[in-house]
From TrEMBL:
Annotated ranges, domain Glyoxalase/fosfomycin resistance/dioxygenase: 7-66
PANTHER family xrefs: GLYOXALASE/BLEOMYCIN RESISTANCE PROTEIN/DIOXYGENASE, GLYOXALASE_BLEOMYCIN RESISTANCE PROTEIN_DIOXYGENASE
Pfam families: Glyoxalase
Lineage, opening ranks: Bacteria, Bacillati, Bacillota, Bacilli, Bacillales
Protein name (record): Glyoxalase/Bleomycin resistance protein/Dioxygenase superfamily protein
Keyword presence, Cell cycle: no
Amino acid sequence: MITKGIQITIFVRDQEKAKTFYTEKLGFVVCDEEEFAPGWNYLTVAPQRENEMKLELVQAETREEKQLIGKQAAVTVLKAFFNESFTIPNPVEASSDGTSLLPYSGTSLTIGGELNKLATNIAHGRDTAGVHWRFDGVEGLKLGERVAIEIFRNYQETYNEKFEGFSLTRFDGTKITI
């Protein structure tokens, strides 16, 4: 898990909605928020304020930036933020009629397992919607993971401090250290 020394830019469709998602759904905190020019806001979030690892949420403006939304290896990046083996306390699930939440009684849920499910569900959702072939979704997960790993490896070369590295689990279950 990365604990300091890096900022990763993620292009988003709506910066305010992304901020709400990261803070209210994932429990991140806003680290920096400043308007540099009309329509150009600098916004960073992190799992905790003292964490030097930040995500910069950038409003996608150009056609090229908009094409990057959702294709930025986000799950692998999130794995670098969190302890993947952390067990989620008191999980809930929807009732059979979908009107209430009930305590989840299945096997333990971990951050890493849930992030993998999230990535897979998004890929399969795009397949089902006819955006991609199933093969594209599977290969897209692998490609995004490779991109994120290379970004982290390249960043480590820029540190002035001694970098001890961190580990994460790939989609195929192998652990790697960067």
